Amino acid sequence: MAHCSKELKERLARYRQIRLSVTGRKSGRTISRPVWFVLEGDTLYLLPVAGSDTQWYKNVLHNPRVDISARGEEGELRGTAITDPAEVKAVAEKFRAKYGAGDVKKYYSKSDVAVRAKIPPRS
C-alpha cells in the first residue's frame, strides 16, 4: 500500500471535501467524485449519500482500494465497510458535527452504512 504524505494529512485536517476514486466493479474503470469526509487521527470516515445504494460504496465492497486527493496531495487507502448501526450512527454524528445537522439531513438520504479507511504511516 502506498504511503500518505504529511502534506495530505495536513490538507485533510483543513478541507471540507476531497476527491474519492474507486474502481468500477463492472467496468473496471476508475470512477472519481467529490465527497465529504471526517478525519479523526489516522482514520478517514466516509458516509455514502444514499447509504448502501451508493454506487461508490458498492464498488468499495468489491475492491476496497480507494484513492483520495485533496487539491494535489494524494493517497491510496483501503476502505472497510461499517454496517453496525451504532457505529454508522456514530459516523453520522461526526458528519453532523463537521458539516451541520441541516446539511447532512438535506444531502444524506440513507444512513445504513459508512466506510472507514486508515491512513497508513509515511514510509
Question: How would you explain this protein's 3D organization?
Answer:
By secondary structure, this protein is of the alpha+beta class. It has a single domain (6-118), classed as Roll (Pnp Oxidase, Chain A), CATH 2.30.110.10. It is 32% helix and 34% strand. It has helices spanning 6-14, 55-62, 85-99, 101-107, and strands at residues 17-23, 30-36, 38-40, 43-46, 65-70, 73-82, 114-118. Strands 2-1-5-6-7-4-3 form a 7-stranded antiparallel beta sheet. Helix 3 packs across helix 4. It starts with 5 loop residues before the first helix and ends in a 5-residue tail after the last strand.
Question: Approximately how much helix is present in the residues?
Answer: 25-40%
- The average pLDDT score comes to 92
CATH class: Mainly Beta
User: Which outline best applies?
Assistant: globular
Low-confidence segments: none
Q: H/E series, N to C? A: HEEEEHEEHHE
Structural class: alpha+beta
Strand order within the widest beta sheet: 2-1-5-6-7-4-3
Number of helices: 4
CATH fold title: Pnp Oxidase, Chain A
Tally of extended strands? 7
CATH architecture: Roll
User: Radius of gyration, rounded?
Assistant: 14 Å
Concise synopsis of the structure shown:
The chain is of the alpha+beta class. It is about 30% helix and about 35% strand. It is globular and about 30 Å long.
Q: Strands, helices and their partners?
A:
Layout: H1 6-14, E1 17-23, E2 30-36, E3 38-40, E4 43-46, H2 55-62, E5 65-70, E6 73-82, H3 85-99, H4 101-107, E7 114-118
